[in-house]
Design a protein that fits this description.
The complex is a heterodimer of chains A (81) and B (597). Chain A has four helices and no strands. With 81 residues, chain A is mainly α. Helices cover 41% and strands 18% of the residues of chain B. Chain B is globular and about 80 Å long. Chain B has 597 residues and is of the alpha/beta class. Chain B folds into three domains: 233 residues, SGNH hydrolase (Rossmann fold); 145 residues, Rossmann fold, CATH 3.40.50; 175 residues, 3-Layer(aba) Sandwich (Aminopeptidase). The chains are: A mainly alpha (81), B alpha/beta (597). Chains A and B meet through helix 1, helix 2 and helix 3 of A and helix 1, helix 2 and helix 10 of B.
């Protein structure tokens, strides 16, 4: 899966989880940019990403994740392994 | 909503929780039953609350929630957090887990020390439960403990008293003993759920250390579903009837084509064994009061030969209604419901054929129609769906099938009489109508939560409320039992009236549809008038509040001789009955309150 394809699928996930069809994301998107992205929804988001991409984040990765770009990078690495 | 019916897709529900909630609240124009539920957690509970909320909405229950701060279950409950007191919970759910056990046994501990630790852990909970019961008088749902996520002593962790596995098992047994001895206290079995889900995945430490969830997030829908099952059962929303297809549902093969001798049932083949085990499970369901009926596309005579086989586990007597014909199944289901005086939504329809399932789903809204999978999955899917979740076991449950069968016999007897009154007299009915008594409080509360059709106000009461009303002295209360030559129907009717000087205002008048058209309502009226007279009441006020289900009693008070004095735009009506000097008894077919020797 290419970086663009991951972005496309991730956008779908964001829209579903936050129940908002207008959401767009980029490498620099952070929690503060999206309405409703609090610590609780973050758990839902992480779980859904793991489920949809069939991969698992390590705890250290979730803790260190700074923005959507880093999430995409981890997804790409996670799917490789 | 299909997505929230078992078997569900847990991850999908978590992902879509926002839009699911929005959809349910907009789709369902009907009224929800509102309940205040406090979740006292030993770990994070947000997602548990979210999932519980969805499953309850799907049962027609709209909950408002109180959540304790993280791991404040004990302090909140024990020391009366003012917010909790103000919230006034109607149901308490204590969500604790093995992560909350503080005094684990150590390898060097003596038996005596370990026993003390066990007792200390247990007594901490007992103190909390007793305080909550005294303070809130409402049902308490308490998690048991899941197995620990590692075993220091390996296999012997289960058996040595120093083992955590052993400690948890003993603590659980103490919880169960307490639950058996206390009413209004229910165990939520996360131990079984964790095992069923897979303990290793369930207690993945990631979720504890990251979010302080005691279980993995994808398992939360399963645990919340089980809490919802207990709550809907307590609120009288269990299903009552299992309507079963025959071919490829109760046996393998098509009896009309293959003949009774060639269908798969019994011990000869793997598939035959599977169907036998399923039939055995269905027979066991009868013990908890589930009614079994047949809805099959077959010739009736041919269909019945399937139960004539020696190796058939179920026999014809196990079914309260047997519908084998070529009519559409949704129609047959509605007819079965009419025959049993039950609502079609009390039914669970089990059929291997997806097309038949769809017809029933469309034609009988409210009935449960599970995707039951392959023959070897039927039993577990039905079992886990929890349609008949048990919260109390009463003799009434075990006899229910018998009572409905007796009703069918009455119906046959009725056909022999030209005159209806003659038929009623032939039943040799005996009624007991008395103020609420200790033995029947649970049944009275159960009826107030279950009765929908013959129910004038549809007010729901907990057992604690019923007991308080019986004790207060400001109410006239009556329960009615009815037996006849075919059997005892148990408590079937309840009246609660509030005394306001010389007036009596009827808060509740209900009757089980099991005894419709037996004149029991007139016997209740006679007794109500008699008791009211003795209390110096001059006027009785009745109230009818229409719901989608209680149209059958819209004119009930008129039949009893009340005058309508008010009606509002919603159809709510108010009625008045002035007790005459000479009241003429309305019932003359039931012998009421005979002296027993």
């Amino acid at each position: 899966m290419s970086r663009e394809e991951v972005f496309e699928k991730l956008t779908e996930i964001f829209r579903e989880v936050f129940d908002d069809e207008t959401i767009t994301i980029s490498d620099t998107t952070v929690a503060g940019d999206i309405e409703g992205w609090d610590s609780l929804m973050h758990i839902t988001l992480i779980g859904t990403v793991e489920d949809e991409f069939d991969m698992k984040f390590a705890m250290k990765d979730v803790v260190g994740m700074k923005n959507v770009g880093e999430m995409v990078q981890l997804i790409l690495e996670g799917m490789d392994s | 909503m299909r997505e929230l019916e078992y078997p569900f897709h847990a991850e999908w529900i978590i992902k879509k929780k926002k839009s699911l909630k929005r959809q349910i609240l907009t789709d369902r124009s009907g009224s929800f039953l509102e309940k205040r539920i406090a979740i006292l957690g030993g770990s994070t509970t947000d997602e548990i609350k979210n999932m519980l909320e969805l499953f309850l909405l799907n049962y027609g229950i709209q909950a408002s929630f109180y959540e304790s701060e993280y791991n404040q279950y004990y302090e909140d409950g024990m020391f009366d957090n003012p917010k909790l007191v103000e919230f006034a919970p109607e149901i308490l759910y204590i969500h604790t887990s093995s992560r909350n056990i503080t005094e684990w046994p150590q390898v060097a501990d003596s038996e005596e020390i370990i026993n003390q630790k066990l007792e200390a852990e247990f007594q901490k909970y007992v103190g909390l439960w007793e305080h909550l019961e005294e303070k809130y008088h409402c049902p308490i749902i308490q998690n048991n403990f899941e197995l620990p996520f590692y075993r220091l002593l390996g296999n012997q962790d289960a058996c040595f008293s120093q083992g955590k596995v052993n400690f948890v098992s003993r603590l659980n047994l103490k919880f169960y003993e307490y639950a058996r001895e206390h009413q209004n206290f229910y165990i939520h079995d996360i131990h079984y759920e964790a095992a069923s889900y897979g303990l290793e995945r369930w207690s993945a430490p990631f979720y504890w250390h990251m979010y302080k969830y005691a279980m993995c997030v994808p398992a939360i829908p399963y645990t919340a579903y089980n809490v919802a099952l207990i709550i809907k059962s307590l609120l009288g929303k269990n299903k009552k009837v299992l309507a079963l297809d025959l071919d490829n549902t109760l046996w393998g093969g098509v009896i009309g084509d293959d003949g009774a001798e060639n269908i798969e049932i019994g011990q000869e083949t793997s598939l035959g064994q599977t169907y036998s085990e399923f039939q055995k499970y269905l027979k066991e369901l009868k013990q908890i009061g589930v009614l079994l009926t047949v809805v099959s596309k077959n010739n009736e005579d041919t269909a019945k030969t399937g139960f004539g086989r020696e190796d058939s586990v179920l026999s014809l007597e196990d079914f309260t209604v047997f519908m084998a014909n070529w009519e559409p199944k949704d129609r047959n289901l509605v007819l079965s419901a009419e025959e049993l005086n039950l609502l079609p939504e009390a039914f669970v329809f089990v059929d291997d054929n997806p097309a038949e399932r769809e017809i029933v789903r469309q034609g009988v809204p409210g009935a449960a129609v599970p995707e039951i999978g392959e023959a070897e999955q039927y039993l577990q899917i039905l079992d886990k769906a929890g349609y008949f979740e048990v919260t109390e076991l009463s003799a009434d449950d075990q006899n229910r099938s018998e009572m409905y069968r007796a009703n069918a016999e009455r119906n046959r007897a009725k056909a022999q009489f030209a005159d209806y009154k003659e038929y009623l007299l032939s039943l040799e009915m005996k009624g007991t109508i008395r103020p609420f008594e200790a033995d029947y409080m649970a049944r009275i509360a159960q009826l107030s939560n279950k009765s929908n059709q013959f129910n004038l106000t549809t007010k729901r009461y907990t057992q604690t409320e019923i007991e308080a009303i019986a004790d207060s002295g400001h109410y006239i209360t009556l329960y009615g039992k009815l037996e006849d030559k075919f059997g005892d129907n148990g408590v079937v009717s309840v009246i609660i009236g509030e005394i306001k000087e010389k007036e009596l205002h009827l808060d509740l008048w209900l009757m089980s549809c099991r005894v419709l058209k037996r004149d029991m309502e007139y016997a209740m009226m006679d007794e109500l008038v008699e008791v009211s007279k003795k209390q110096g009441i001059s006027d009785i006020f009745g109230y009818y509040y229409p719901t989608p289900k209680n149209a059958m009693v819209a004119d009930f008070f008129a039949l009893q001789g009340f005058q309508k004095i008010r009606e509002d735009e919603k159809g709510n009506t108010e009625w008045k009955f002035s007790i005459p000097e000479k009241y003429e008894q309305k019932n003359n077919v039931i012998k009421v309150n005979e002296r027993r020797n």
